[in-house]
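Give me structure tokens for this 348-residue protein.
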Amino acid sequence: MNEKIDSIKESIKSDLDKAYNLQDIVDIKARYVGKQGLITEMTKNMKDYSIEERKEIGKVTNELKNLANDMISSKENSIKEALLNEKLNKESVDISLPATSIPMGAPNILESVIEEFEEVFMSMGYDVVDGPEIEEDKYNFELLNLPKGHPARDAQDTFYLRGDEILLRSQTSPVQARVMLSKGGKEPVRIICPGKTYRRDNDDATHSHQFMQIEGLLVDHDISLTDLKGTFDVIAKKLFGENTQTRFRPSYYPFTEPSVEMDISCFNCKGSGCPICKNTGWITISGAGMVHPNVLRNCGYDSSVWNGFAFGFGAERCAMLKYGINDLRVIYNTDLRETKVFDRKDVD
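Here you go.
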């Protein structure tokens, strides 16, 4: 047995010395430690031996097999290393060659504008909240002082999905109602709710059946239009420059009283008059007002104790004004030749 083991050891060493590629290693593995290999065959007739002999044969066979695997593995690693070094010596990389130009993605301009709004409002302590786009009539209209039959409902041209109770929200105001209800009329509210809204409208350069609103709500004690004006000033200066002036004009919305439209001084002509501001020197960018007492009561707040203001911006309109876009459809276009110039926050 010992002579046979010594013979196999010498044979493995000799074969490995002659191995120059990985296929030689595969053949050697099969010859010695494979199912039909020389070492495996040493245990073929184990049933013919006594228990003591079987133990001894099993022991020396396992030791031989482990030794063979170690020798083969060492040679295999040596060959692989040699092949790798040879490959590295043959191949070279010219680091002076220009790199491949890969277009980089960036946030869509609409997303960038919304993020700017969020950053400013969060710095003032507002929370950013969201709600369902498929909404109930109760939240979209009734709680917001728009009961069934109210003429203002017709102006919104709503997409109804099931009867007159389930619809695609025509504004993000339902989110405000849901948040107020969740507070149980006991806690202040300070939120903005950007999101998609839907109305029956013909798509053209300035209109879309789907658009993004950024609405906000503040409910607390002793809130006035002065607080709203201060908030509006911060937003206008952040989006359109520190020299931007703001003003309020009386308006009407069913969910606010009093209601105002919020204007900024034209950033293009600096107030002297141009086509963008229709020669008025001012541009309307938002509607707002003090939350109507009916809305507060509908949402669980005592209107004799609590008050607040609400406002809404059209994200597309702000983006068009800020970046000089003449056609709303460009914002949703997938043609990079048209959109890549707007895919940066630092575009002036």
